[in-house]
Specification:
The complex is a heterodimer of chains A (about 300) and B (about 325).
Chain A: H1 2-32, H2 39-60, H3 64-91, H4 99-121, E1 126-127, E2 136-138, E3 145-147, H5 148-170, H6 172-182, H7 184-189, H8 194-220, E4 222-223, H9 229-242, H10 247-266, H11 273-287
Antiparallel strand pairs in A: 1-4, 2-3
Helix pairs in contact in A: 1-5, 1-8, 1-9, 1-10, 2-3, 2-4, 2-8, 2-9, 3-8, 5-6, 5-8, 6-8, 9-10, 9-11, 10-11
Chain B: H1 2-27, H2 33-58, H3 66-83, H4 88-110, H5 115-134, H6 154-173, H7 175-185, H8 187-192, H9 197-223, H10 233-246, H11 251-267, H12 272-289
Helix pairs in contact in B: 1-6, 2-6, 2-9, 2-10, 2-11, 3-4, 3-5, 3-9, 4-9, 6-7, 6-9, 7-9, 10-11, 10-12
Classes of the chains: A mainly alpha (about 300), B mainly alpha (about 325).
């Protein structure tokens, strides 16, 4: 039982990372109906920027907490700009093209980011500095352990999620986002600047992915240019699981997928872990394409 | 009908002449072994690109799991020749049929999905096939199979490529092919016109998988070793770039795309990262500036030689 709970805690920590990435997928899909394949690679870029800024600030001699916050902020800002750039250069010219054309472009952008990374940084993994020393905590006198990193992961995810909820439901740009995702043309007629809203969505999604990247680096201590592929795909699975287009769905889907994966690994089937994630994806797509929290949209002729 | 036959025979004669010329160049030693390998690689990629084009370009079902079918063909044929001493050509045919069976099995549930959901589901299936192979001891797990007899010769390769192109091209030009194009243009309208959309989608999937499987078998018997890693998402992506470069929906385009990219691949062999950067840049730029591909969807047709007007272009505008 204690072992199970231990794995549950590990799973939630992995799941938080998936959830943060899945949010970007779900928001972008909600607005322009595009599976942004490049999102996993924005996560990778965010992680690398976090790595470089953490190294720099640590060498300057800031205290660890400040280093963490500064690298998070810098990595999120740069990635947000990257997200806007990608959208402007690659997706905006295709606003009127078929969805398949945009999807192919997204795959192209994804590979472009990956291999530019390999070209510039080399294919081998780089060590991520330990910004904050890990502490182990015993829970309730049992053998269940939680380390400071896992607590920080969950903490950051919850804080970012609250900020996101606030932006989407309480601010003007959030209202614009919801309007555009509901009906782009009607929103335009109401005087909403659709292009700016889409850019804002990409910026927010990319910033969240970058935060996930920094957390990922701190958890696994290694980053490489291809690291975005699998977490990216799995975060997409999480987004579909929770119901694509739904923000709480992305959170629940991410946590659920992370937990399922860790439990499967702990049962000794770790080499099947990725297969299970994709099997979940296909089962969901076939039996309940709207996901756990999604709205069922009927196709009209 | 007669005109179609005429252009068909002109195509066959052209292919025979092409084969004859290359065969002479090979036997006289003007083309060396490296050149022969490149030619075989080109033919394998032509088979893959033409079969993917049937699924993606003609039927409009966006599949990005083509490497999965290829891996099934490669593994089945390799096991047949290694462990059961089945003759090479028979093994290839069986491997193609097994891949087609998988095409149907995967097709039936996933083809209810459309657009990007289908894409991600085929990607998922491709990855699942790879993970299953990775975890099956019988097929060597992560290290794969080696010592596969290298029986793929230029003649066999050319023959199979010719059969692929002829069969798929004739399928496209038949009433079945037009049904597939109708599905691509507007699925609901096609259904209203009495086309059994699910059936045709599955036929297209199975036919595409069949030739991808044979291509996989041929490549396994050319390169001596196979492992799950060589049939990952990257491979599917490569085939997709070939089809997109030539023009989605055009068989001749797929052939040209396969030739151009294979040559590029061989030239840039020493710079793998650069190659991928170029691939992805091609993909993005093509989609933005020339979404119909190098040749557009009409492409090159031997009908011109049979004194018939080229048919109006079937653009992809859905």
């Amino acid at each position: 039982m204690e072992y199970f709970i231990q794995q549950l805690i590990n799973g939630i920590s992995v799941g938080s990372i998936y959830a943060l990435i899945a949010l970007g997928y779900t928001m972008v899909y909600g607005i322009i109906k595009l599976i942004n394949f490049a999102h996993g690679d924005v996560f990778m870029v965010g992680s690398f920027i976090g790595l470089f800024s953490a190294k720099y600030f640590a060498s300057v001699g800031f205290p660890p907490v400040i280093v963490l916050i500064l690298s998070l902020v810098i990595s999120m800002t740069v990635s947000a700009l990257l997200g806007i750039t990608i959208e402007r250069l690659a997706y905006k010219p295709l606003r009127r093209a078929s969805r398949i054309a945009v999807l192919i472009t997204a795959i192209g952008v994804s590979f472009l980011l990956e291999y530019t990374g390999v070209y510039l940084l080399g294919p081998q993994a780089k060590g991520f500095p330990e910004i904050i020393n890990k502490h182990q905590f015993q829970l309730f006198g049992s053998s269940v352990q939680v380390d400071s990193n896992q607590m920080m992961t969950l903490g950051t995810t919850v804080v970012l999620m609250i900020i996101l909820q606030y932006i989407v439901h309480r601010t003007k740009i959030g209202k614009a986002m919801r309007a555009v995702s509901f009906d782009m043309e009607a929103a335009q007629l109401m005087g909403i600047n659709v292009d700016r809203t889409i850019s804002a969505t990409f910026a927010i999604g990319s910033a969240l992915a970058a935060a996930a990247g920094v957390i990922f680096g701190m958890t696994y201590n290694a980053v490489d240019p291809m690291m975005g592929v699998l977490p990216g795909l799995k975060a997409f699975v999480a987004a579909v699981l929770g119901g694509i287009g739904s923000i709480p769905g992305a959170l629940v889907g991410g946590l659920l997928l992370g937990t399922v994966e860790t439990e499967i690994s702990s049962l000794g089937y770790s080499s099947w872990r990725d297969g299970v994630a994709f099997a979940i994806l296909i089962l969901i797509l076939i039996f309940k394409p709207s996901g756990l929290f999604g709205k069922n949209v009927r196709e009209k002729v | 009908m007669k005109k179609l036959n005429k252009s068909f025979w002109i195509g066959i004669v052209f292919a025979m002449v092409l084969y004859g010329v290359i065969q002479i160049l090979l036997t006289t030693g003007i083309f060396d072994d490296v050149m022969e390998s490149t030619l075989i690689l080109i033919c394998i990629n032509v088979m893959l690109a033409v079969s993917l084009n049937l699924i993606n370009g003609i039927t409009g079902q966006f599949s990005i799991g083509h490497a999965g079918f290829m891996s099934i063909g490669a593994y089945v044929s390799a096991i047949l020749t290694l462990n059961f001493d089945v003759p090479f050509v028979l093994a290839l045919v069986i491997s193609g049929l097994v891949a087609a069976l998988f095409g149907v099995l995967i097709g039936i549930p996933t083809l209810r999905l459309n657009g990007d959901y289908l894409a991600i589901a085929t990607l998922g299936f491709g990855e699942i096939i790879r993970i299953v192979l990775l975890n099956t001891e019988y097929v060597g797990g992560a290290s794969g199979l080696s010592g596969i007899p290298t029986q793929t010769t230029w003649t066999i390769m050319f023959l199979f490529t010719l059969v692929t192109v002829v069969v798929i091209n004739n399928f496209i030009n038949s009433s079945h092919g037009r049904a597939c194009i109708a599905i691509r243009e507007n699925e609901i309208a096609a259904e209203a016109m009495g086309i059994n959309t699910t059936l045709y989608k599955i036929i297209a999937f199975a036919l595409g998988a069949l030739f991808a499987g044979i291509a996989g078998g041929l490549s396994a018997h050319k390169f001596y070793v196979i492992n799950p890693g060589s049939f990952n998402f990257l491979k599917s992506f490569e085939i997709l770039v070939m089809v997109v470069l030539g023009g989605l929906g055009s068989t001749s385009g797929a052939i040209v795309g396969a030739i151009v990219l294979t040559v590029l691949f061989t030239v840039l062999q020493e710079y793998p990262e650069l190659r991928m950067i170029i691939y992805s840049a091609i993909l993005i730029l093509m989609m933005i500036f020339r979404p119909k591909g190098l040749l557009g969807s009409t492409g090159f047709s031997f009908k011109k030689f049979a004194k018939k007007e080229a048919k109006p272009s079937d653009s992809i505008n859905s």
